[in-house]
Amino acid sequence: MPCPQCASPLPRDARTCPNCGVDLALIALLAERAYLEGLPEASPFPTTPEAVVPRIGEYLLEQGLLTAEKLETALARQKQMSDRGQRRLLGQTLVEMKLVDRETLDRAVTRQIIELHAALQEANRTLERRVAERTAELRPALERLTELNQIKANLISNVSHELRTPLAHILGYVELLEEGQLGALNEEQLKAVSVIHRGSDRLGRLIEDLIEFSTASRSGVVLKLQPVELPALMRNVIERSSAKAEKAGVRLGLSIPPDLRAAQADSEKLGWILFQLLDNGIKFTPGGGQVVLGGEREGSLVRLKVADTGIGIPPERLEEIFEPLHQLDGSPTRRYGGTGLGLALVKLIVAAHGSQVHVESEPGRGTTLSFLLPAAEPAA
Ligand SMILES: Nc1ncnc2c1ncn2[C@@H]1O[C@H](COP(=O)(O)OP(=O)(O)O)[C@@H](O)[C@H]1O
Ligand SMILES: [Mg+2]
After folding, report:
1. Ligand 1 mean position to 305 CA, how many Å?
2. Terminus of the chain with fewer CB atoms < 10 Å: N or C?
């Protein structure tokens, strides 16, 4: 060990430094004192009950255990000590000055802690009561909301059924006009009638979607399960979509491996789902891109999928696409038509088959939607 004063090495049992002659015992004592004085005097966290209950002075006054004068004196003393760098708790000061005896102080502190505890418990009870009251207030609101939802569903269902009849009349007459059965039309009139025809067709599809959706969400999806020959169904869906794809400049692909045969499903609804997925694929794919309808065997299951090279969906919005009457572009200037009902209904129908729709997408690159169904051998 080196000498604390001159740093020259010290022999084992030296009492003075052989080099500078300093008294080693004395220097050790001085060092210890310097170290202790450098330490903070009190812990910054209250550790005694008295420190936890800081308003002890007022409390003692209230209880008549201390006079205002004595409290003043003690506070003045406490300040004096603190100016000298010696922090003292008020209770401690009171006891030291013999203004209050230790026992009284302890009792007062205990009393105050008990009161604090009771106040805390009361606050908790009030809080619990408030929560219960609020919950009770919200219940009727929730019931009302459920009722309103039911009314909305009924309204959609009734209105859409009512819309069917007049639309059937419009379409009937449009066809008569187009066929010239009500007299020959000139070219301009024919063009106008064909615009009416297309508009009415779109309206018709919208109404059918609305009816499908409201029935499905009201009374659940009723399935007619049977073995469905997938290749035939898929070819049919592609055929029905080809006009739209051609118009959009989007190539349609069909991928049917030889082991893809039949699935246990509701044939009509499955066709409808695939048509919806292709419809979206074409709609959200710019000209020059492609949409592929494919299927593959996965053990005792078959996976059906529609993959496009379109605009894609941001990862944080993948869940939104299944919300009813919701479109990612909901702005009044949106470019794509539709009602936002298609995928909500696709989800309901796939769920009724005991499965779920899986989405993979990369913005700007494309989207793939797929789902699994149990494989089935077609009826002989
Ligand atoms: N293949 C897709 N590529 C990009 N976005 C899609 C695709 N399919 C669906 N979406 C998004 O999900 C929304 C909901 O789809 P859907 O329920 O079919 O309604 P709609 O076709 O009437 O807009 C669409 O408006 C679109 O924002
Ligand atoms: Mg759609």
Report:
1. 15
2. C
